[in-house]
Every structure is written in C-alpha cells, then in structure tokens.
Design a protein that fits this description.
Blueprint (H helix, E strand, L loop, with lengths): L1 E4 H8 L4 H23 L5 H48 L6 E3 L9 E4 L2 E8 L2 E7 L7 E3 L3
C-alpha cells in the first residue's frame, strides 16, 4: 500500500508542462517571422503559406494547452483535498504534517492515514473528518515523499 507525504501532495499541485510552453513560444516566433517576411516581400507566397502553417500550429497548441489546463485543474483539486485532509488530521492529532501520510491522492471516504505508527480511516462528515483508529495486519507499506 502506498502512502503519500504532505510535501508530495503540495508539490504536485504546482507542476506545469514546460515542453508545451516552449513549442507554443517557438510557433509564435515562427509566425511573427513569417508574417514579417510576407509583408516585406508580398510577391513570394512561401512566407504566406509558412505563416498560415505557423498560425494553425499556434492555434492547435493553444487548444491543447486549454484542455491540459482543465485536466490539471481537476487533478490539482484532488491533491488539494488530500493535502487539506492531512492538515486537518495533523491538527486533530497534534502532529507535524511531515509525519502524516495518506494512501490516496484524493481525499475521500475510507482513505487510510498513517500518523506516526498508528493508522486511521478517514470518514468525511460535512466539512470535517472523523478519524477511526484501525489496526493493520501484515502491512506492505511504501512511503512516497517529495522528489
């Protein structure tokens, strides 16, 4: 069973896709260059075609980025809910957040929390959590910390 640390959960919220940003910037630079050359030499159509290709590339990358941002937003919400659950459990048990691990990336009913050497099951009640102490027999625990 995998347990994720608080640092891992909060660190995953800020992940961005740099490659997509670099490709979009390169396509935008190519578009500006092609438009500049096209307006300078209006008789040569190769720059017009190049600018159209670059424009379509920029539009495709923008659409892909919007879709990616929407899916990342949903994932970030899940990590935020798990991090909030760890914060609440740390407050309730009066422990440091670094000593608490949760077995899911999204806080939900039935999530298991490892706090020190004890295990608790989280039961969501309205805006708060109820902790039920549990005994784990023969656990195969793998702790996942921040990179």
């Amino acid at each position: 069973m995998k347990f994720y640390s608080y640092e891992y959960l909060t660190g995953r919220i800020a992940v961005t896709n740099r490659l997509q940003l670099i490709l979009a910037a390169a396509a935008a630079v190519l578009l500006v260059f092609a438009l500049f050359k096209y307006y300078r030499e209006r008789r040569d159509t190769k720059y017009r075609e190049l600018s159209l290709i670059a424009l379509f590339g920029v539009l495709a990358l923008i659409c892909a980025r919007i879709s990616s941002e929407q899916s990342h937003h949903l994932i970030d919400d899940q990590y935020s809910s798990a991090a909030h659950a760890v914060e609440t459990v740390a407050e309730e048990l009066k422990l440091d957040k670094a000593k608490i691990y949760i077995n899911t990336r999204a806080a939900r009913d039935g999530a298991v929390v490892k706090a020190g050497g004890d295990f608790y099951r989280i039961i969501a009640v309205d805006d708060s959590y109820l902790l039920e102490k549990m005994e784990v027999i023969d656990p195969e625990i793998q702790l996942v910390d921040a990179d």
